[in-house]
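Reviewer 2 asked us to include a model.

Predict the structure of this chain.
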Amino acid sequence: MFAGDLLAERARITPDRVALVSVEAGERLTYAQLNECANHAAAMILGAGLESGDRVGLFAQNSIDFIAVFFGALKTGVIIVPLSTRATAHELSIIAADCGMKILFHDGSAPDVNGVTLARLNIVPSSRTVPHRIPDPESTACLLYTSGTTGKPKGVMIPHRQLLANGYNTAINWGLREDDVAPIFTPLYHAGGVAVFLIPLFLMGGTIVLHRGFDATEIWETIERERCTIVLGVPTIWKMLRDAPQFATADLSHVRWFISGGAPLPAFLIDAYQQRGVTLKQGYGLTEVGVNCFTMTIEYARNRPGSIGRPMMFTEVRLIDDAGNDSDTGEMWIRGPHVSSGYWNNPQATAEAYADGWFRTGDLARRDADGYFFIAGRRKEMFISGGVNVYPAEVEAELLQHPDVSDAAVIAIADETWGEVGVAFVVAHGVADVDLVEFLNARLSRYKVPRRFIFVDALPRTPYGKVVKEELRKQLA
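Predicted model (structure tokens):
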């Protein structure tokens, strides 16, 4: 697997094709212009005294400058560390100390970080020559820190090999085209921001429409105005887009498909978009395995709602049961060229999660007779009630079928009689717990029905839609 300067190569082949449309700035950049911005960003990085292998932080909202610095860093060999703009100074200091960060580039909103030099993003034309280099495919291109919802954040080492392998596999298996147009409104500092669709679509020569953040009305306007063909979102976003007034009238004739990731996709959302004539697929991935690991045709996506599809080409997947044997149901292990190198400065966590090229995802899944996979939930979230396994994701999916429930999450608590029972946190209007019990009793075995319902205004979620269940446990305690 080779590595190289992706943006420079695309600019060489299709210099005049539009690469990036910035909704906020009102600018349209060709590949040649975007590559020039990245070269100037590389000169800024080198001018700050950084060398290959040094770690440099990036704290900024979605912008042209963010993309320029990311690709500029790849040109120089420094290791770029994109940071959540939601993080506190304390959280950022932990990450900075863990990776030995030297400089933190920011767009004017970064808090002070202990022991790190802050530098305002100032990408200006430069005559400094950026040395042409072909990186070692296994050298680390960037560090993507996990959310830290269950403890200290871990820095996932993303090698150059992984960035390109994931990009090629996504482009080929998802059938991306040079005329595809995709909006990005999820944070670029997250793995999904880079891997879907930024790098895959740049490989194909398509166009990215960049939003600073999410606004349902603005997104629908972009989809129509720019004639977007493919769109990524998370379930929470797909629900907000469905609930927006533009959902019923937006022109979707140019859309090839939508895709959801980050969390299980409820069946009612799939149905809602199919009624509008658009296939809403469900993807699967993790930061550690390149975000995109499965693929499915439009035909099969319609016939197998809830499935994440089959493994992509050159992707191996095993399901390991509680006895450590291969099975059709169990914890999902993934191996392939898109798997990361391990965790920065954390050999213990690396040894626990990586073995012989396999990454243990911690997700439980089942495989049907035709080789299609379905996610059952997180291994750590599964609980045993009365000697029987209960998967919170299954209960949550049924709760979301209730017309008055807009969001739900289930966790387990100890019970003297049953060992463990479920507690459901529910966002709903005009419904009581007895109504939900009656509703679930008609759809689930009795042992799966939560014994307690807590009604809340909103669930704590990461920027990519995953419920932060540790926060729910703290609330319960």
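The mean pLDDT is 91. The radius of gyration is 22 Å. We have added this to the supplementary material.
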